[in-house]
């Protein structure tokens, strides 16, 4: 591992960011914020155009004759059951984010839209649409195209499962291609490490606020945060020492079962009719407007609306791009034996429908409690981490649901670290699907250190900016992967 120049440079980059973050946390945060602001303002149109193109192309590919092609040999069967495949994919891609933003994001959008003069019903409806756009089809199209290219070349063409694999296989082994592939893998390792560390920090904040709410603690300072962080690091060590099918599958299935049970409980014991009305409306509104929304850039709106768009929807698209190497490689690894049609429809539709129900329940309940003066919506501006727990506090069995949410968040973080360490270990061994325990543990430690840096930043906004800062090149990399896939797949006899 340490004889590999690619890995040594990647480690130097990530360790450099870690040291910078520890020595000058505010300086790193300010630098990331400024860089992301420049990127979003100058290339936002290209990001939106790209993610929309990825989504449209994905559906065309799924419905075409090429949808019958298997990711692997024609007689290969899936390694994991459909349920385990979907839960592992979902846990790696978004898990803890849904718990963190389930109620907070729709309420945040509602407050902004209402502040712009929108009537409350319209503000609530559009807030839900914006939230679903940020978490739905476009996000999973980014993951799906990345994963599909890597899985197709890896399982059908026996190419190492690296982000650079399709590029080398399609364009040959000349110096320019080798150099491009090397740079792509370097940036992938860096983006994976930074992106996962940010997610780890968000998860720690979520668990911490669950404990504070449950025990009614005051002025815990960094003591509780670091304690949770230490327990988390200890918890993901064991899964890294066992086979992927045993460790990751069990953790992700457990986390998702808890999350689904929590969602169903709130739906049944909350204002069921109100929530279901909202969910049904959200389904129709989202699928009617999702594609046009992908081409929206708010070109003619005033500055406040543009800043809002850049801070949320555009920032999310860049965030998913930053996560694409990690989630894409991981989804590719667990997708052998699936047809292209099954793969695309599974990756795009299953998480999107789950998100509609999730935000419909948590966001709808947030709207309901706000209207009933049970929840002060301003909490999202004061302490966004506590929104979910304050909402749960107004429901039956609140202590149980707060514990369940904290446990689910904890498990989602562990699954994310395990899957990221696995992917980084794959990169460290030239694309091996079964890297050694030692290498996985080394990456687990490095991810923990980076996560600590993110925690020290103390700001959700700063974390999102640091993640987004690593995503710049991947809007071009994913387009290149799609070109490789389409260029090669057209030669398939189907």
Can you give a write-up of this model?
- The chain is an all-alpha fold.
- The chain has a single domain, classed as Amino acid/polyamine transporter I.
- 79% of the residues lie in helices and 0% in strands.
- It has 21 helices and no strands.
- Helix 18 packs across helix 19.
- It is globular.
Q: In the CATH classification, which architecture applies?
A: Up-down Bundle
Q: And the CATH topology?
A: Amino acid/polyamine transporter I
Helical region count? 21
Indicate how many domains the architecture comprises.
1
Distance between the termini: 41 Å
How do the SSEs run, as a string of H and E? HHHHHHHHHHHHHHHHHHHHH
What value does the average pLDDT take?
83
Number of strands: 0
Largest sheet: none
Instruction: Evaluate the radius of gyration.
Output: 21 Å
Which stretches are low in confidence, meaning pLDDT under 50 for 5 or more residues running? none
What features would you highlight for this structure?
about 500 residues, mainly alpha, Amino acid/polyamine transporter I, about 80% helix
Task: Tell me briefly what this model is.
The chain has helices spanning 5-23, 25-63, 82-93, 95-101, 104-115, 120-135, 137-156, 165-171, 175-215, 221-235, 237-240, 244-269, 272-293, 303-333, 340-371, 379-382, 387-393, 398-428, 437-457, 460-469, 474-489.
Topology:
Elements: H1 5-23, H2 25-63, H3 82-93, H4 95-101, H5 104-115, H6 120-135, H7 137-156, H8 165-171, H9 175-215, H10 221-235, H11 237-240, H12 244-269, H13 272-293, H14 303-333, H15 340-371, H16 379-382, H17 387-393, H18 398-428, H19 437-457, H20 460-469, H21 474-489
Helix pairs in contact: 1-2, 1-9, 1-19, 2-7, 2-14, 2-15, 2-20, 3-12, 3-14, 3-18, 4-9, 4-18, 5-6, 5-15, 6-13, 6-14, 6-15, 7-14, 7-15, 7-21, 8-9, 8-21, 9-10, 9-14, 9-18, 9-19, 9-20, 10-19, 12-18, 13-15, 14-18, 14-20, 18-19
